[in-house]
């Protein structure tokens, strides 16, 4: 566990509350990396579902990750949201000196004020873990230079060995690490809510739920993380315009939408705006309605049609949702779907894209409230194992409006 990360902020708290009220959760999965991963294939990671990467820049006062440059470049080119972290040495070193090392590396890579979330990886040895004042000084130093509040990463057990109120009350967010499954193999997935107490923080901005994740293009023993927010939330943590964090991680539709930065009513094609909404670029309510202005009803009608199985999901087609990738929706025949749609490596798809599914069974079903996969199988007169496309990857977890294939 020598390379990890985190996030937070008042606006993120408000976003989290709004998500709960709306009943719609926006969250993303990603990974973090250090020199162990070397130069990786970020496009493969994106195709496997990754939406962000946190990369180690420095440690102590003299160490720089020799692979940071190629990791950052690969992640940028693939459209991953970026975070950068410093591993605290602490022993005999001043927090200001370690912060300077981190900031110097960050400046050399063009990361400051560029939509990147800074992080302090807090894993010092022994009793040094309880040195809250040291951590707070590092965080304050970086915040002043970066113009945003860094996150602090620590294990769930470390939270309770000291009083972290000076850090939490200063609005430095928490990225907590804890592995309920131990060190068994894991993957990019939705792990749900953090199962640990994170007091004095009101909530964790992110959870590193395993250090044994298999991430395509990166490795088979990778730290995997769940971020409780979307692109808009990320931009708030980074204190940066959203267009600095939302380079699409997938193919861009023919008609594109400039990422949201102001409250000016957007212009352009309504279908393209609907795609941007599905991708999370317009955030959650009430922010979404404010940003869309007079276009709100028009655009949301298209969004709701796509997400509820309207005309755009006629038999023989599937409308791609945010977070989808081919092998997730069609685990057994994704290459057939790729061929039907003329997709070639790296097999990128985008939210709102309409993919042909004829050539498989060409049949689809829209999940209704209260249904289970078993009840749907009985309704359709098919075996449960023949139903595909549930985005959670868990047959016991399906969502109203989700489009299943059989």
From TrEMBL:
Residues 363-406 form the LysM domain. GO terms for biological process: carbohydrate catabolic process; cell wall macromolecule catabolic process; peptidoglycan catabolic process. One of its GO terms (molecular function) is lysozyme activity. The keyword Hydrolase applies. Residues 1-27 form the signal peptide. Coiled coil: none annotated. Pfam families: CW_7, Glyco_hydro_25, LysM. Keywords: Glycosidase, Hydrolase, Signal. Belongs to the glycosyl hydrolase 25 family. This is Glycoside hydrolase family protein.
């Amino acid at each position: 566990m020598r390379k990890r990360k985190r996030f937070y902020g008042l606006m993120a708290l408000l976003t989290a509350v709004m998500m709960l009220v709306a009943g719609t959760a926006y969250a993303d999965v990603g990974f973090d990396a250090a020199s162990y991963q070397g130069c990786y294939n970020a496009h493969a990671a994106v195709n496997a579902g990754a939406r962000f990467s946190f990369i180690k820049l420095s440690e102590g006062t003299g160490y720089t990750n020799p692979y940071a440059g190629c990791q950052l470049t690969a992640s940028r080119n693939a459209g991953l949201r970026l975070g950068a972290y410093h591993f605290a040495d602490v022993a005999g070193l001043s927090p200001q000196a370690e912060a300077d090392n981190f900031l110097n590396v960050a400046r050399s890579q063009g990361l400051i004020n560029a939509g990147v979330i800074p992080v302090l990886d807090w894993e010092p040895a022994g009793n040094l873990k309880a040195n809250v004042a040291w951590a707070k000084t590092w965080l304050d130093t970086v915040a002043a230079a970066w113009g945003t509040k860094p996150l602090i990463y620590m294990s769930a057990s470390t939270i309770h060995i000291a009083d972290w109120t000076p850090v939490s009350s200063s609005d430095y967010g928490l990225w907590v690490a804890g592995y309920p499954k131990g060190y068994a193999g894991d993957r990019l997935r939705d792990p749900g809510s953090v199962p640990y107490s994170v007091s004095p923080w009101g909530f964790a901005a992110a959870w590193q739920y395993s250090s044994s994740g298999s991430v395509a293009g990166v490795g088979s023993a990778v730290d995997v993380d769940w971020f409780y927010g979307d692109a808009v939330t990320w931009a708030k943590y980074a204190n940066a315009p959203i267009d600095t964090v939302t380079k699409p991680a997938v193919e861009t539709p023919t008609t594109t939408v400039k990422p949201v930065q102001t409250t000016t009513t957007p212009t352009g094609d309504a279908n393209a705006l609907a795609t941007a909404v599905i991708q999370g670029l317009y955030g959650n309510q009430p922010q979404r309605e404010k940003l869309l202005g007079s276009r709100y009803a028009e655009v949301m009608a298209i969004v709701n049609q796509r997400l509820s199985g309207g005309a755009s999901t006629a038999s023989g087609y599937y409308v791609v949702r945010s977070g989808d990738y081919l092998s997730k929706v069609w685990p057994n025949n994704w290459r057939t779907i790729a061929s039907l749609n003329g997709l070639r490596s790296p097999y990128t798809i985008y939210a709102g894209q309409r993919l042909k599914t004829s050539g498989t069974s060409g049949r689809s079903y829209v999940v209704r409230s209260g249904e289970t996969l078993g009840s749907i199988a009985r309704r359709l007169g098919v075996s449960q194992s023949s139903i595909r496309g549930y985005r959670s990857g868990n047959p016991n977890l399906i969502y109203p409006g989700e489009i299943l294939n059989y």
